[in-house]
Every structure is written in structure tokens, then in C-alpha cells.
From TrEMBL:
It comes from the Eukaryota. It comes from Sylvia borin. PANTHER family: BTB_POZ DOMAIN-CONTAINING PROTEIN KCTD17 (PTHR14958:SF24), POTASSIUM CHANNEL TETRAMERISATION DOMAIN CONTAINING PROTEIN (PTHR14958). Gene3D superfamilies: 3.30.70.2000, 6.10.140.750, Potassium Channel Kv1.1, Chain A (3.30.710.10). Residues 33-134 form the BTB domain. InterPro entries: BTB/POZ_dom, SKP1/BTB/POZ_sf, T1-type_BTB. GO terms for biological process: positive regulation of cilium assembly; proteasome-mediated ubiquitin-dependent protein catabolic process; protein homooligomerization. It holds the Pfam family BTB_2. GO terms for molecular function: cullin family protein binding. This is KCD17 protein. GO terms for cellular component: Cul3-RING ubiquitin ligase complex; cytoplasm.
Length: 214
């Protein structure tokens, strides 16, 4: 059969090719360039080169066919029992090295698939993206800073009224009189004030430089 093919007999070549796919897969060196994958009922067509872009991945091992004996459907496509929705971006990543997602596509879903297919660089990209998102989202509950100011009764109203820059009055603690002026007691208070602190994008906490006036 080989000699005839070398002589360029077209019809014979076609027949040999057909017989190969029906009986046993050809040896690794002569495998076809195109690969069909049936992912959860959706068929994807790609090349062996694309799938082997990531050497350690499940997809590369699958199409080399050495370790993984995968079932095939009636068209000869490898059957993979995974969600096809997220397979598109994974395949595209192998094609051009970029992660492109539709806006309603969850990164968690892609991460799950990237981990299943064992595509290291993609796992890192998604985790970085998710951390960035988390960082912007977690700014919502701000941190609170508390300060305790000590003052006397007569200074109290003035101090509370002059608090500025987002300082908020929280609590007043009467600590009794500490010393006597003649026959008048001056009651001492601890005044607790709080301020919300928002994280700015560069990671530093933003806080106005001037403190609450006492």
C-alpha cells in the first residue's frame, strides 16, 4: 500500500486513509492535523498543534493518545464530559494566548475548566483577574479607625461640634472628676470618635492629614 501511495495513485491513497480511521488510529507520527472534540454534546474542530500548545494539559495528552484511552462518538470526535460553554474561551486561549470572555461568563467557571484541563498559564491569569476583582469589590465595607479623646465637660460641646472630615461621634465615657478647682468639680470625659477608612486603588489607606480638633 505504501509503494502505491508513493506513486501517487489518488484513489488508492483515499482508500488507505479511510481504512486507517476505521480500523486502528495511525501511529503518532502520521496522525491527522485536525482534531474533533465533542465537549458535552458540542463539537469543536481544532488542530493538534493548538491542543498541544500547553504540553502538560489533558488536551495535549488526549490527542497524542498515549495514556488516555478516550471514548469517541460516531464521527470519531473525542468525547469529553464537560460544559461546552466554557470550552470556547479555553480553546481560544490555546490558539492565541489571551483570555477573552463574554461579559456574562463567570471566571469561576473558566477556572474550573482550566484546572480540569490542566492549563497552568490560564489558571494563573484567571486567578489574577479574580483577585483584582475581589480587591475592587472588597473596598465596599470600609475599615473603621477609632480615636479616644480626653476632655472636660465644658469642652465637650465645642469638641463635638468642631469634629470634621468624616469623624463621627461614637461614645462618651464619664471617668469622674480627676481634681477639684475650689468647690467646683470638673468632670472628665473620654470621647470616642470613629472614621471610615477607604482603601484607595494603590493599596494605601486614605486618611486626611488633619486630625479631629480637640
Amino acid at each position: 500500500g505504501v509503494r502505491m501511495r508513493m506513486e501517487g495513485r489518488e484513489e488508492m491513497q483515499g482508500a488507505v486513509g479511510l481504512r486507517c480511521t476505521l480500523d486502528i488510529p495511525p501511529p503518532a507520527g502520521t496522525q491527522a492535523k485536525w482534531v474533533r472534540l465533542n465537549v458535552g454534546g458540542t463539537v469543536f474542530l481544532t488542530t493538534r498543534q493548538t491542543l498541544c500548545r500547553e504540553q502538560k494539559s489533558f488536551l495535549c495528552r488526549l490527542c497524542q493518545g498515549e495514556e488516555l484511552q478516550s471514548d469517541r462518538d460516531e464521527t470519531g470526535a473525542y468525547l469529553i464530559d464537560r460544559d461546552p460553554t466554557y470550552f470556547g474561551p479555553i480553546l481560544n486561549f490555546l490558539r492565541h494566548g489571551k483570555l477573552v470572555l463574554d461579559k456574562d461568563m463567570a471566571e469561576e467557571g473558566i477556572l474550573e475548566e482550566a484546572e480540569f484541563y490542566n492549563i497552568g498559564p490560564l489558571i494563573r491569569i484567571i486567578k489574577d483577574r479574580m483577585e483584582e476583582k475581589d480587591y475592587t469589590v472588597t473596598q465596599v465595607p470600609p475599615k473603621h479607625v477609632y480615636r479616644v479623646l480626653q476632655c472636660q465637660e465644658e469642652e465637650l460641646t465645642q469638641m463635638v461640634s468642631t469634629m470634621s472630615d468624616g469623624w463621627r461621634f461614637e461614645q462618651l465615657v464619664n471617668i469622674g472628676s480627676s481634681y477639684n478647682y475650689g468647690n467646683e468639680d470638673q468632670t472628665e470625659f473620654l470621647c470616642v470618635v470613629s472614621k471610615e477608612l477607604y482603601n484607595s486603588p494603590n493599596g494605601l489607606s486614605s486618611e486626611p492629614s488633619h486630625k479631629a480638633k480637640v
